[in-house]
Specification:
Distance between the termini: 24 Å
Strand content: 5-15%
Oligomer: single chain
Helix content: 25-40%
Strand order of the largest sheet: 1-2
Shape: globular
Largest sheet: 2 strands, parallel
Order of helices and strands: HHHEHE
Length: about 150
């Protein structure tokens, strides 16, 4: 499961679609609707929000807005808590940089024409960037942990 902390506007088509699909799964997990993925580390930040259902709803809403802007049809009725207030979940600058580099490694293979759009590690609307290294919940192998 990869719930990108990066702004949806910089996600390539594959990342945007996968994030939507995995975000819907995360929403189901947070609502207790599945037995799988219940301990997935990326869900920690949503569980720590004051209202986890609203936090994942806001996250999904931002993905849906970006998809609509690109002409895709992500079904907004699948968002459990629509029009939720922005939870402003903290995400470290190190995490954003890590994710940007990870996305670059994927985009260079699957959509090299998208690569020039990956110039800055802007946070998705549900997150607020704070100083710090890669997040403790990140289980990927750091490209550069320094």
């Amino acid at each position: 499961m990869r719930l990108w902390s990066l702004a949806p506007s910089i996600l390539d088509r594959a990342a945007l679609i996968a994030c939507w699909r995995e975000g819907l799964l995360a929403q189901k997990v947070l609502a207790g609707g599945t037995r799988g993925y219940t301990r997935h580390p990326q869900l920690e930040r949503f569980r720590d929000a004051a209202d986890p259902a609203a936090a994942i709803g806001h996250f999904l809403g931002a993905l849906q807005v970006e998809a609509t802007a690109r002409g895709y049809r992500f079904d907004a009725t699948r968002i459990g808590v629509a029009d939720a207030d922005n939870p402003l979940i903290p995400v470290t600058e190190g995490q954003l940089a890590y994710e940007l580099e990870w996305l670059r490694t994927k985009v260079i293979v699957r959509d090299p024409e998208w690569l020039p759009r990956l110039t800055s590690a802007a946070a998705a609307p549900s997150f607020v960037a704070v100083p710090g290294p890669i997040e403790a919940w990140e289980r990927g192998v750091p490209l550069d942990a320094s």
